What does this fold into?
Amino acid sequence: MGTKEVILNSLACLACLSAPLAGAEFEAPAIDRFLASAAPVSVAGTPVALQMQTKAVTELLTEPRVRAPVIGRIKRGVKLWKIDETRAWYYVMAKIDQRNQTGWVPREAAEFVAAQPAPKPGAAPVKMPSGSDILRALVVEAARQYKGKRYGSTTHVPSEHITTPLDCSGLVFLAYKAAGLTIPRTAREQRQDAMRLSGMEKLKPGDLIFRPRDSSEYHVKMVVEASKHGIWVIEALESGTRVEEYLWDPHSETLPLTYASLIPGR
It folds into this structure.
């Protein structure tokens, strides 16, 4: 089973993919359902623990260090989604004040809901999708909800009021917002904040491809799938078009490209 199938199988187990999108007010119902569920995710038919919960009252922090700025307070027993980790910290997603927030909690403050079962004798090991893989799938599925929507400039629209019609960076902004991730609003700012990738072969779902529009502005498209068979992207291209998903031909580009990622825990 390929990476994409593993991720989608995990999401389908949670009935996430049919979640409706409600424009700019969308608060990631796919993640909400996951956080509200007590059942472990099934990957390739094997139940694995992808879910955590707080063991005690703790604080969600902006950085993995003591006395870092506090995002919010989390009660004991609140379900978390682990995205990444260090030796002393977990980078997680949690629901605070009815919003999905990402940040750091001490390792001693969280625990897995269930343990991964021991493999059967002779059974092939099951590769569990990482937290960043699931985030990628959620970002892509959120972007797909806008397919067919009309292009419209959102350059002068405040972030909290962005809805359809929308432009290239507005599509990316809303897709990431739907997955509980806060990213810059414009393509130029998104490019500045993103981690550069060494080449096209490093692209994964949810990653971004930037090309210059002029001396200071950029256009951005999102990767939907990247494999040896090609790269599928989704984008809001220009006035008079609609949000479209298609097999991208890199040879059609005449300007220098930037390959980058805004997904945490790469």
